[in-house]
Give the backbone structure.
Amino acid sequence: MPMPSSEVIVIGSGPNGLACATRLAQKGAKVTLLDSLSTPGGGASPREFAPGFTTSLAHLTRGIDARVAKGMNLERHGLSFQTLQTTLLGANPITVSRGKTSSQDTEYARLHDRLTHFARVLAPFRALPPPRLGKGNDWLTLSRLGLGIRALGKTEFRELLRMLLINAADVAEDDLTDTRLQGFLAFEATLGSWLGPRSPNSLILLLNHLAIGPDPLAPKGGMQALAAAMAKAAVAAGVTIRQNAKVTRILTKDDRATGVQLTDGETLTAQAVVSTLHPGLTLRTLVGPRALDAGLYTRAGHIHSRGGTASLTLALKALPKLDNPGNRLIIAPSVTAVENAFNPVKYGQVPDAPVLEAYIPTTLDPRTDSHHILTANVQFAPHAPENPDQARAQMLENTLRVLETHIPGLRALILHQDLLMPQDVATLYGNPGGNWHHAELAVEQMLFLRPLRDLSQYQTPLDGLWLAGAGSHPGGGITGSSGWNAAEAMERTL
Ligand SMILES: Cc1cc2nc3c(=O)[nH]c(=O)nc-3n(C[C@H](O)[C@H](O)[C@H](O)COP(=O)(O)OP(=O)(O)OC[C@H]3O[C@@H](n4cnc5c(N)ncnc54)[C@H](O)[C@@H]3O)c2cc1C
């Protein structure tokens, strides 16, 4: 890519778009960032769900990628976090913080230490383009990472391989006795995925969460403060951000991307176009079949993208009665409860008893003295139910029933309620399927297979067209990792 002084269009102002655009601008490119929503932040952007009440799709993070936080100077732009403890709600609630539990469970502490250790070994792979099967790798960096794995020793290395391939339920049931902690492990492993704890290879997703960061973190001021800090950093680096700018086409000429067209017909030209949107949407809808190899066009339509997470927000007239209302709250009483919540979505149906992660952001940042907001990631939700409105109503009712059982009196406090099903996420955020990671994060769509083997280095076969969103390695979450990786990959082609 000809840089500096080249003109780059980045599509999507989510955390990856903001990170990518900032890095490119810092390297001298003239960057325009386009987004269809009215405020930057993508999954972290504020959304008014009832008059005077805002929420965001994502409510907690495991942490912004350290390179992004430093490179964008996010602390200086006002971003700080509160580390949260977790309460497992139920008849006998337990508090969990890293490996420590209020029940002083030594089995859990041991397992947690071991998984955290493996996650640390794997974490550096998140900050690199995935290794290629053939030539063209950064062998120096890869061999340094390889040394980290070798340092584990033969026995631990074998154990790491086992953990990469095993399902979460087996580890939970083999290594833990307490069913509440088994359920917690099963929930954490499958959060954001389209896998149940008994699905093959589901433990790798827990290692991925732990590799992002050991703790759930709440941005002070809410997710919107995180989005605002990232947007401020982008503007400070010279990025021009245009909201309410929906891209309908990526323009191409002679096998290269030349710009974009917006819904109102306006065209913008550039030497490079970076899309942080779903890879299938980018290639099949925005580029279209005429500019693409037929094989790639077909395979881009086979990227699995089934969303399984619903997003609930409640406006409450008072703080519900809880021992630690500022903690992250988990309702996932056992492995079977999590698996049972997954089973119906395979057939487009709503689970009777969803499992969930809830948080009351207003405990950290009260917006008024009396009103509070509770947000929850609820699993599992069918991504393509036969009757979407009926499924949404049923999912809301079942979720509120589960919450009321664990937090008695909650329903009486509700002023407004809002539930986004995967199909709502698809419509509102332009994310087909509504999956947390845009393209499902599962072994067959990871590393050099993410999102497809010939797109895994962020570059597409169309000259000047790059991918940089959650659908690329290393996947989603509010981290900015794939955006930063893509910008670095673009620099290397200079
Ligand atoms: C229900 C749910 C709950 C989640 N909760 C959490 C959580 O608590 N913690 C966490 O870490 N992660 C969470 N995630 C995942 C997280 O939101 C995403 O992984 C992350 O936002 C991806 O970042 P991104 O920048 O790649 O894309 P996005 O954040 O999705 O941003 C893409 C942007 O592109 C815009 N766009 C779409 N189409 C167009 C177009 N044609 N033209 C212009 N702009 C367009 C969208 O409006 C959006 O602003 C959740 C996801 C879901 C679905």
Remarks:
- Residues 11-17, 34-37, 42-43, 57-61, 246-247, 276-277, 307, 309, 311, 377, 425, 429-431, 434, 436-437, 469-470, 476-478 surround flavin-adenine dinucleotide (CB under 6 Å).
- The longest helix spans residues 388-406.
